Amino acid sequence: MQRAERIQTEAAMRVEASRKQAYIQIEETRKAAATASWWLFFTALISAVASAGAGILGVVG
């Protein structure tokens, strides 16, 4: 009976370790996605400003 309990305890510990690792990976993925979203936003913003500037130069010049 002790062997079965030991195996069950080890299995529970492995499941918990897997859950923790999955949570860490989810958090890292979330952070990477947030960073990519900000990069995309600022890239679009800079592109819009450059385009507006070029439009103004085209009309004025």
Describe the protein's architecture and organization:
The chain is mainly alpha-helical and 61 residues long. The protein contains one helix and no strands. It starts with a helix and ends with a helix.
Taking the sheet with the most strands, its summary is: none
Low-pLDDT regions: none
User: Over the alpha carbons, how many angstroms does the gyration radius reach?
Assistant: 26 Å
Shape: rod-shaped
Q: Report strand %.
A: under 5%
What is the structural class? mainly alpha
Bin the helical content: over 70%
User: What's the N-to-C terminus distance?
Assistant: 89 Å
Task: Please provide the ordered H/E string of secondary-structure elements.
Answer: H
Structure annotation, total helices? 1
Summed over residues and divided by their number, the pLDDT gives a mean of: 95
Q: Please report the total strand number as a whole number.
A: 0
Quick tags:
61 residues, mainly alpha
Short description:
The protein is built from one helix and no strands. With 61 residues, the protein is mostly helical.
What is the fold's blueprint, element by element?
Blueprint: H1 2-60
